[in-house]
Design brief:
Length: about 80
Amino acid sequence: MGLVTQLLTLPLAPVRGAVWVMDQVVLTAERQQCDPEPVRQQLAALERELLDGRITEEEFDRREDDLLDELERRQAHQRRLQAHS
C-alpha cells in the first residue's frame, strides 16, 4: 500500500518539497528570533558603557530592565520550541 500511495501522490512531490523548505525557513527564523546570545551581548556592552561612564546608572537600570525582559521572553520562547520538537 505504501508504494501505491507514493506512486499516486508522486505529482505532489514538488509541493511537499516546497512546504518542507518553507517549514525549515520558518523554523530557522524562529530559532534566530529566540536566540538569547545577542541579548547577552547587549547586556555586556551596556555594562561596559556604565563602567566607562558613558551612561548614568538610571539609564543603565532602565535599559537593563528592558534587556532582561527581552532575554526572559526569548528563553521562554526557546523552551516552548524545544518542548514541541
